[in-house]
Specification:
The structure is a single chain. This protein has a 4-stranded antiparallel sheet with strand order 9-10-8-11, with helices on one face. It is built from 10 helices and 11 strands. The longest helix is centred in the middle third of the chain and has 16 residues. By secondary structure, the protein is α+β, with helices and mostly antiparallel strands. It folds into 2 domains: 132 residues, P-loop containing nucleotide triphosphate hydrolases (Rossmann fold, 3-Layer(aba) Sandwich); 71 residues, 2-Layer Sandwich (Alpha-Beta Plaits).
Length: 282
């Protein structure tokens, strides 16, 4: 509905200041769209598709070649621009689709799960381009099921469950709603429960105790995060304890999603999806 492919069933929405129902043509002039499945002519080359897209947007012929070449370079496809799209990997097609969405310099860019199935190199390339666009003043409206991606890229996050926004805010603010960082501590050379009780008393000076996770001996919540680690280590050392390991664990957007919706996002427990290989020529 926001990109004017469907008519709204009710309500009001404006994109770039224009009503999506009554002014769809004005909206389309100002937006770029890269959907999850890139619909590209397999028999054309990357350069040909970029130049065709530029022509369809009414860009002056004198500007078409330079603008197309610049965007192809930005998404890392310069060496493949004269190859037919049917020879491109999925990651290369996704990056070409992104470049085509940017050819007319839109005010708002819509990206629908842009990194699903991409290899790590293509994923990082796309992340870098999204950050660059944001820094240049483009508003990027991104949908994703990878919560790490939302944390990395988004200035504001909205979580939707059953068609309703159940949480909205900056990633930091949302994570702060579900808890503070906690420190997992593993000690060496302790002589049993008595020593652990003494260590627990030391750690209790810095934060509230939490249930210890597998592999650690003690865990505390620390409001100050990383800045509290050095005083904790010094205090344990003063009491004769040797720290084997420390693990500062931050709340994640997965924690936020689980608390706000009562479930985990499908695939959220998979740190990185299995990618398809992207040829070195990309």
């Amino acid at each position: 509905m926001l990109v004017t492919l469907l008519r709204p069933s009710g309500g009001l929405a404006r994109v770039a200041g224009f009503d999506v129902a009554s002014e769809p043509h004005e909206v389309r002039k100002r937006i770029g769209v890269a959907l999850q499945e890139a619909a590209l002519d397999q028999l054309m080359t990357g350069r040909e598709l970029m130049e065709l897209q530029a022509t369809l947007h009414g860009i002056q012929p004198a500007e078409v070649k330079d603008r197309a070449d610049d965007l192809i370079r930005r998404v890392g496809l310069s060496e493949a621009k004269d190859r037919r799209v049917q020879t491109y990997s999925g990651g290369m097609r996704r990056r070409l689709d992104l470049a085509m969405a940017l050819i007319h310099r839109p005010d708002v860019l819509f990206l629908d799960e842009p990194t699903t199935g991409l290899d790590p190199v293509s994923r990082l390339t796309l992340w870098e381009e999204v950050r660059r666009l944001r820094d240049e003043g483009t508003t990027v409206f991104l949908t994703t099921q990878y919560l790490e991606e939302a944390d990395q890229l988004a200035d504001r996050v909205g979580i939707i469950s059953s068609g309703r926004i159940v949480a909205e805010g900056t990633p930091a603010a949302l994570k702060a709603q579900v808890g503070v960082p906690h420190l997992d501590v593993t000690l060496t050379d302790h002589d049993g429960p008595g020593d652990l009780d003494r260590a627990k008393e030391v750690l209790g000076r810095f934060g509230d105790h939490r249930p210890a996770t597998e592999g650690c001996h003690l865990s505390i919540a620390i409001e100050g995060g990383a800045r509290d680690i050095a005083p904790i280590v010094r205090a344990l050392d003063d009491e004769g304890f040797t720290v084997a390991s420390l693990d500062l664990v931050q709340p994640t957007l997965d924690d936020v999603f689980a608390e706000k919706t009562g479930r985990h996002l499908e695939g959220a427990d998979q740190a990185t999806p299995e990618p398809e290989p992207d040829p070195a020529a990309a």
